[in-house]
């Protein structure tokens, strides 16, 4: 029986990585989303939630007792030390949960490991990816998307970009780059081609 096919997916904020993940899921891939896991491990009453509140105080809580992610982001993206502190709380919990999810991969299944910080956390060095995909878009287009779609300021967007790897650093580990600077239909065609030409053949291996 064939082993599961592990695909790494990464890209900078605003690149459209999540859109590509969604299209791969439509083709039948199982997507493990690091951002979603990160939200789960700091949900109210979790160990991660308690750790964040202990370090950052009640000011990062919303009225419902959940973390106010916008407020927390304001703090950590303005202060590298605060960001590192948050990472030491959250990243081990995320990594542990994602490892457990990876272990659940079924033989012959395409599992997409969707993680923005694949390069920054050297995830590519710890896993035997059959394929690493990087999603890119021009910087100004990424800023425009995030300002319009997430109501972020340009300053906030640039601060987040500055905390991530560069396109050049991501390309250095990539097997394939998808340029997402066109229409939704353009992206769909690119992912269709990716699936047929690069992923489907992996499923056919003995």
SSE arrangement:
Elements: E1 5-11, H1 17-26, E2 30-33, H2 34-41, H3 47-56, H4 69-76, H5 80-103, E3 110-114, H6 123-126, E4 131-136, H7 139-149, H8 154-162, H9 167-171, E5 176-179, H10 184-203
Parallel strand pairs: 1-3, 1-4, 2-3, 4-5
Helix pairs in contact: 2-5, 3-5
Strand content: 5-15%
Number of strands: 5
Which bin fits the share of residues in helices?
A: 40-55%
Instruction: Order the strands across the largest sheet as they lie in space.
Output: 2-3-1-4-5
Return the string of H and E elements: EHEHHHHEHEHHHEH
Overall body shape: globular
Number of helices: 10
**Overall pLDDT score:** 93
User: Structural class of the helix and strand makeup?
Assistant: alpha/beta
Low-confidence stretches: none
Distance between the termini: 8 Å
**Radius of gyration using CA atoms only:** 18 Å
Major β-sheet, in short? Answer: 5 strands, parallel
Would you mind describing this structure in some detail?
With 206 residues, this protein is an alpha/beta fold. The protein is built from ten helices and five strands. Strands 2-3-1-4-5 form a five-stranded parallel beta sheet, sandwiched between helices. Helix 2 crosses helix 5 and helix 3 (47-56) packs antiparallel against helix 5. It is globular and about 55 Å long. It starts with a strand and ends with a helix. The relative contact order is 0.22.
Please give a quick description of this structure:
With 206 residues, the chain is an alpha/beta fold. It is 53% helix and 13% strand.
Notable characteristics:
5 strands, 13% strand, single chain, 10 helices, alpha/beta, 206 residues, five-stranded parallel β-sheet
